[in-house]
Each structure stands twice: as structure tokens, then as C-alpha cells.
Design goal:
By secondary structure, the protein is of the alpha/beta class. It contains 11 helices and 7 strands. Strand 5, helix 10 and strand 6 form a beta-alpha-beta unit.
Length: about 280
Amino acid sequence: MRNDKALHIASAVRALSGEASLTRAGDLDSIKALCFDFGDTLVNSKIFVSNGDKKAIEEAMRFYHLDGSPARYLSLTERAWDDAGRELDEKYCRGLPLTKHDSQLSGELATRYFAESLTRLMGQVPSQESIASVAEAQLKGIMTADSLFPEVKETLSVLHESYPLGIISDNMAEYVEGPLRHLDLKKFFKVVVISGKEGPGITKPNPEIFRRALSRLKVQPGEALMVGDNTRADIEGARNVGMFTVWVNRNREKLTGTAKPDYIVGDLSGVLDVLSGSFHN
């Protein structure tokens, strides 16, 4: 028979019904903590990046005294990010072992390269001052975007009453800490582990980033459930450490590759089904 935690969660499933399927049997009575990926698991990265891009354009227009609507420049952002990716690869990533890769520095450089490219594409001559200003606006746009998936807050509220929760995210700190504050999610999480704050090489699926989260939550791998959208980084990484796993498959994609999630859910509310024992085979 399941414990009181599961019984409490089972009562919430009637209000927040997700869709879950099982890929490997396991005894979830041992679960003492839950860990979550951030981008595209809790928040929609397309929304927060889009908001960041819009704020960057608005700041460039303010800086260079450009008239008109920011919408006229939105089509330039994809090219600006492509330019930033190439420059980041040439100046930082190329030839750098993954064990030396610094997520924080990489994110900061990419944002600056994006700001520089965007400014040029808008027909202006970038300066160090303008690049810094546009890059800062882009980050603030991400940190203040209303990017939360609709079922997330209520689901976390239920889970938080029964389990300590943690975040394990591959990103620069601003991309996680800012939205957590803006979206009023910080209160739900006992532990937040961000690759950008952990040092070079500490990124998913490296077992070390999962072990650090488990250590701070004071649980063993078999006592924790990892929830994420990326089958390699989140699912394979966590399973290799010994955690139970839930793949959040919002787009109903076909499972490919070597990843073998223990459970598959359509959105975050499906985690309630998993933990209550009411998942669908």
C-alpha cells in the first residue's frame, strides 16, 4: 500500500489529470525527493527567448534613437543568434573539451555576440557600450517573461507538500534564477543546481551534476525521481546515476535513441499520476 504522500497526491489527480505511460516497472514507494529540468519542462523557452529578443530590439532602438515598431526587426533575431553561435564556436567552443566548457561564460559570450550581430543587422555600428546595453536588455527580457506552462504552478504546489523539490539545469544562472523569482517558483525548491554556477564541465548528462543535487537534497539516487524533456541530458543522465526518470513529452514525439525513461507524461501534471499510482499502461 502506498504511503500518505501518494494518497495526498492521488486526491489531486482528479483536479490535475495528466497522461502517463510506463516503460519500466519500479517501486516508487522509495521516492523521497523530486528533481526537475527547467527549460521546456517548467517554462517554455520559446516564449522567454522571444521576449528577450524583443527587449533587445527595443533597447537597440532606444540607444540609437530609431523610430518605428520593434516588429520590423524581429525577423533579424534568428540570423543574429546564428551569427552568435558561429562566433561562439570559433572563439570559445572549438577544440575545448567538454570537461573545460563553462556554461556561464558560454552563455554570457553568446548573449554579447547576439547583441553585437543584432545591432549590425539593424544597420548600426556597435560599440562596447551598446553591446553591453542590448545584452543586458535581452537577459532582463528572459528573466521577466511570462513563460510558465499552464499546469506547472499548481502541480508543483501539490508536490511541494509531500516532497523536497530540486532543479537541475544546464544554463547560465540568469536564465534560471531570474524566471524563478519572476514566476514565483523559487518557494517550491529546496535545491537549485545550475551548470553555470557549478563550474566547467558540470553539465548534464555528466553524473556529477546529478550527484551534487542528490547530495544537497540528502537522498540516494534510488530515492529520487528526475523529470525532464531532454531524453539524453535529463533521462539518460539521471538513469546512469540510478535515479527514476519521467520524460515530459509535450509534443508527443517518438522515443528514439538509447534513452529509456521509466515513465512518459504529456505534461507536468502527469507526474501526479505517476506518484499516485494511477498512471496508464
